[in-house]
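Exercise 7.
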Amino acid sequence: MDIAERHRAGFVALGGRTNVGKSTLLNRMVGHKVAIVTPRPQTTRRRILGIRSDPDAQLIFVDTPGLHRPRSALDQHMIEIARRCLSEGEVVVGVVEASAPLSEGDRAFLAELRELKAPRVVAVNKIDRVSRADLFAAVEQCGRELPEAEIVPVSALKGGNVDELVAVIKRMLPEGPALMPEDEYTDQTERMIAAEVVREKVFLAMREEVPFSTAVMVENFVEEPDRRLLRIDAVIVVAREGHKGMLIGAGGRQLKQIGTAARLELEKMLGAHVFLQLLVKVEKDWTRSPRKIAELGL
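Solution. The predicted structure, written as tokens, is:
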């Protein structure tokens, strides 16, 4: 068997409850920032694709929204996306948080993993935050909850043992050629990346009640190659009039800070000067309207 025949490739679904570190782990394994990361729950709202192309394998990671108890049409939509992606993965990586005992949410997620037929790996994340004894206890409990799965302790934040996790995933993938262009690391357009980066900065800047009811639409994305300039007009959609005032801030200072942070990040990611203009618009209770959710591209 030659090297070409031994090459492996396939889709790897990442799943878990909210705030367990899936997106941080995705970015670490891909080697590029393809998913926004914040401490807020439910940051990831849609399927995010990250591609890692090594000489021996191509791993096409599919990051999914965190599983949680739905309170709105948006919640239900995100959960449906996550479960569909998990059911379609050729390998499924379930991410849980290292704690002893495991949280109720992590145990519920492992129960869902038991119903899947694909090869499964449990990544026990945030090992940098727990004692060795608690880590061993968490790994042992994962083994009892899902005995047929491989279990790999990792630190997505610091990179600890992530190479071992990638090696385990590779062994589970089917043999075959690369499925995506090997010079790409995501299927997201620059326009989509711009919207996500603005939303990330909103999540990081605002208090807890505002981010969840926020969405971002990029209305204009104009390239001026001769000047290495991108002109981006984005609208931040909020669900309540009060949230609009909080986002703009006194004298527009809050919105300006969000815009500056987003612009600097986009210039770094896209390798061009960015002129970013932000507006804030109210769409009353949009998170409860399936029609509005669809209009916003979620």
